[in-house]
Automatic annotation (TrEMBL):
<keyword id="KW-0001">2Fe-2S</keyword>
<feature type="domain" description="Rieske">
    <location>
        <begin position="25"/>
        <end position="128"/>
    </location>
</feature>
<dbReference type="Pfam" id="PF19112">
    <property type="entry name" value="VanA_C"/>
</dbReference>
<keyword id="KW-0479">Metal-binding</keyword>
<dbReference type="InterPro" id="IPR050584">
    <property type="entry name" value="Cholesterol_7-desaturase"/>
</dbReference>
<keyword id="KW-0408">Iron</keyword>
<dbReference type="Pfam" id="PF00355">
    <property type="entry name" value="Rieske"/>
</dbReference>
<keyword id="KW-0560">Oxidoreductase</keyword>
<dbReference type="InterPro" id="IPR036922">
    <property type="entry name" value="Rieske_2Fe-2S_sf"/>
</dbReference>
<protein>
    <submittedName>
        <fullName>Phenylpropionate dioxygenase-like ring-hydroxylating dioxygenase large terminal subunit</fullName>
    </submittedName>
</protein>
<dbReference type="InterPro" id="IPR017941">
    <property type="entry name" value="Rieske_2Fe-2S"/>
</dbReference>
<keyword id="KW-0411">Iron-sulfur</keyword>
<dbReference type="InterPro" id="IPR044043">
    <property type="entry name" value="VanA_C_cat"/>
</dbReference>
């Protein structure tokens, strides 16, 4: 395990979770962020250089030249490799130094000292595999829910960055009860009981936290799934003015930028094909998108204004069973990561 990214001032388990669990896929940015010229992003405890080659394939390396540590993202895109701007050292996308112009044949040439990241591009986003092995030869394939892969579904990616720990974003989504209060003025969440009983139900690859006796009325349930990427799914009922396609499904995945900033990915999805797809996409862009951003903004303001140690001074009750279960599960995954042989 790479201990260089662990905050030594934290409990070891919290330190692992703060920067994101290893050996998982994470979304890191919308596809449109990455052009031919390299960009630099802080994600998952690293500064990462990301670029496209001539075919459009995305590559990623730690934004750190193995020679002197200069940012590779300021260098020259040579297709499958970057040339460092400082001394021209060329680093291939698999982490291998292929050329040292100032000292040909030196021991740095042919070595593989740079951390590389396997990439995937899907559903309008770039994904990185956060491998525990810095030079992993192959990553497991990215697996996404059917809402993002099936031709029977259509979706829009909503990306934003929130000023808080990404785990607070996860807690917010694993809390259906806040919908009837925080979002009570929303066109989609103004209905439903202001009191509820909840239950936890196991599903393939995860669990569902749901209100008893109420479904399709408000924000009534949340699913958490481990598909090799951690994703959350919820459903919001739509008024008829929202167009064809039934209820509105949201797929969420959340990535640490640093311990005070989160990358927040929500895909807004509906099961529609043919003319219905065109109709709902038109209605969404012209009538609904702004309203949905307003709802998301309510969540952002609430989460950003929580103190960093808010989760250390809580008094939880039955509506928080889902949060408790998920936190416990993530801590167990972090403990297992710490226990793995280095």
């Amino acid at each position: 395990m790479d201990t260089s990214v662990i905050n030594v001032h934290l409990d070891p388990v919290d330190a692992v979770l703060e920067v994101g669990l290893k050996d998982l896929w994470f979304p890191v940015c919308p596809s449109g962020f990455v052009k031919d010229s390299p960009i630099s992003l802080r994600r998952l405890g690293y500064k990462i250089a990301i670029w496209r080659d001539a075919t459009g394939q995305v590559h990623a390396l730690e934004d750190h030249c193995p020679h002197r540590g200069a940012p590779l993202s300021l260098g020259v895109n040579l297709g499958d490799r970057l040339a460092c701007p400082y001394h021209g050292v060329e680093v291939r996308c698999d982490g291998t130094v292929t050329r040292v112009p100032g000292s040909p044949g030196c021991k740095l040439e042919g070595s593989r000292p740079a951390r590389m990241f396997h990439t995937a591009e899907a559903a309008g986003a770039i994904f990185l595999y956060n491998a525990s092995n810095p030079i992993l030869d192959a990553a497991p394939p990215l697996q996404l829910p059917e809402e993002l892969t099936s031709p029977e579904w259509s979706h829009f990616l909503c990306y934003t960055e929130w000023g808080g720990d990404y785990r607070y974003v996860i807690d917010n989504v694993m809390d259906p009860m806040h919908g009837v209060y925080l979002h009570k003025q929303s066109h989609t969440m103004s209905e439903g009981a202001s009191e509820a009983e909840f239950q936890i139900r196991d599903i393939p690859n995860g669990f569902c936290f749901e209100k008893k006796g109420q479904r399709g009325v408000n924000f009534d349930w949340t699913e958490w799934m481990d598909l090799g990427i951690h994703v959350m799914r919820l459903e919001i009922p739509y008024p008829k003015t929202g167009g064809p396609g039934g209820n509105f499904t949201i797929i969420g995945s959340y990535t640490p930028i640093n311990n005070r900033t989160s990358g927040v990915f929500h895909w807004r999805c509906r099961r529609v094909t043919g003319w219905q797809r065109d109709a709902w996409r038109f209605l969404y862009k012209n009538r609904l998108e702004e309203r949905h951003w307003n709802v998301l903004e309510q969540d952002r303001v609430a989460v950003e204004n929580m103190e960093p140690d808010a989760n250390k001074r809580e008094h939880l009750y039955a509506h928080d069973m889902g949060i408790v279960r998920l936190r416990r599960h993530l801590r167990n995954l972090a403990k297992a990561q710490l226990d793995r042989p280095v």
